[in-house]
Automatic annotation (TrEMBL):
One of its GO terms (molecular function) is ATP binding. The keyword ATP-binding applies. It holds the Pfam family ROK. This is Glucokinase. It is an enzyme of class 2 (transferase). The keyword Nucleus does not apply. Its EC number is 2.7.1.2. It comes from the Bacteria. One of its GO terms (cellular component) is cytoplasm. GO terms for biological process: glycolytic process. InterPro entries: ATPase_NBD (IPR043129), ROK (IPR000600), ROK_cs (IPR049874), ROK_glcA (IPR004654). Keywords: ATP-binding, Kinase, Nucleotide-binding, Transferase. SUPFAM superfamilies: Actin-like ATPase domain. It comes from Ignavigranum ruoffiae.
Amino acid sequence: MSKKIIAIDLGGTSTKMAIVSGQGEILQKWSIATNILDQGQHIVPDMIKSLQDRLALYKMTEADFLGIGLGSPGTIDQAAGTIEGAYNLNWAQAQPVRELFSQAFDLPFYMDNDANVAALGEQWQGAGDGLSDVVMVTLGTGVGGGIVVNHQLVHGAVGAAGEIGHITIDPELDFECTCGKKGCLETVASATGIVNLARHFAESYAGDSEIKQMIDDGQLVSAKDIFDQAQLGDHFAQSVVEQFCQYLGLACSHIANMLNPQKIVLGGGVSHAGVYLLERTHQYMNQYCFTQVRESTDLVLARLGNDAGLLGAAQLVNLIQNGVRE
């Protein structure tokens, strides 16, 4: 019987864990609360204890496993085996995560940034269909992403590859990004970004609009509100969505022209707008793409949802243990 993999998707509110087959089937899945008190010092011990308890419950031993894979927020130092800058975990300083797991389990342990891991999961078992070259763009509160080339994650010189949200999309835009720049994709093509656009354009829009009325009345407006109203025929909301998709399509064309992946996968909460978002973004991406790239790079919606991180964490182990990458 082939060995299984322990997969962990570490988040600021909860930590998901799973036992995954080498072929990508989730055999068991559970979660625990992420305790970020005391500078996050309980997080790794809690994960280790939960895993030990589950292995005892399932009457499994370390001999049943190929290794442990972890996806986490923050900056991953692969050489040192540490994670730092994960502020939603209360981990401002470097945490010796690999050392702690190695003390508890006699198993290979691998970890990567959560956005990278989610991209790897979608490439392996999701919308990437196992193809060799796939880029994932995650549209949430911000914009994140991960790049898979020849089945391997691309990290760059200091691990900063895949910062798709900080592609400068329009240097004349006055929306300041959390990174300190202006004109970043994240400021116009995230859940926050589409609200930025709506508030900006509402100042000069004179027609009837439910969204404009909500903004003028000082009500909170969400990305879902804007997409919902656009699909119901609100002309103002439609114009905001159109601008959103143009910016996102332009960014995707840059990715496509540079890397020519077989697929670019749109994930994250905003991608729940579905085909309405996909078709418009794809149209703009194709408009800005080099001909051969347009004919070979497809734009698709993510399929794995919350399981992308777990499956990506499992694939980290698969790839390294089977010698696909170092």
